[in-house]
Structures are given as structure tokens and as C-alpha cells.
Amino acid sequence: MSPIISLPRYRTTLTVFGMLLLLQCTHLSAQILVVDRYTVLAATPTVAQQDLLGGIDRITFPVDVVTVGEALVTALDSSGYRLAVAQGTEESRDILLQLPLPDAHRTLGPMPLRMALQTLAGPAWRLLEDPLHRLVAFERCPAFAEELPSWSM
Question: pLDDT for 3-19, tens place per residue?
């Protein structure tokens, strides 16, 4: 003869076991939150919350964004960072900001915002970050730092 398992008793046993397991998990770490019956979350900031320029994002620029400068400002809009204001006459910075936005850059990602900003600027520019003031700026890479060629516009 096969033993017959009482269904209500079986459910009660599973429920008690589940509650003990949940209680045990909450004692292991105060950073664990039970959100739903089967959902447990860690109460820690996400990567995007810890590193504002490191969060993965997909950026699509509207048609009215036509320069690299406008694209940089648009990309930074919701990040908490701003484009640094140039001190004095910064001809080098104006070169970058006034460049036309290439069609290939109209949609970027998914990628970290830091990489999207560097992609918009191109290989001739190095991204500089000021996390204290939440500012970003660009400087010309040494290989491109010499005078502009005579055929430049």
C-alpha cells in the first residue's frame, strides 16, 4: 500500500518551511528586501546610480539636434552632469561643439553614457570628468594638438 499524503498538512509544512527560509535570509543580510512572494531584492544602488556616466543607455537624438555640441548637451540632460563652460577663448572646444552630428551617431547604444560621449567626440578628443562638480569637458589628444592644417575651414 502507498502512503496517502494529506494535502492540507503538506501545504502547511511547505508554508512553514518557506517562512523559516525567508526569516533565515533576512537575518543573513539587512540589505535584502522581500518585495513579493517570490521576489527578493538587494537594497543597494544600481550601477547607474553609483556611476552616473557608467549607466547603460540608448540615446536617439531628435531631428533638431544638428551639432555635436547639441548632442552632448542632450545626452547629458538626465545624467546630472553638465558640459563645462569654457574659460576665456577656447577655440579648440568650439571646433568640437560646432561639428555636424553624423547620421551614424543619431542613435547610440545600448552603451555606457561615458562611451556615448566619447563616441560623439571622436578619437581626436579625450573625455575629462569632474565628479565633484558633475562636469564633463573634452581636450584634444596630443596627436591632434598641433596647429590646424592650412586646408581646415
Answer: 555 556 666 666 666 66
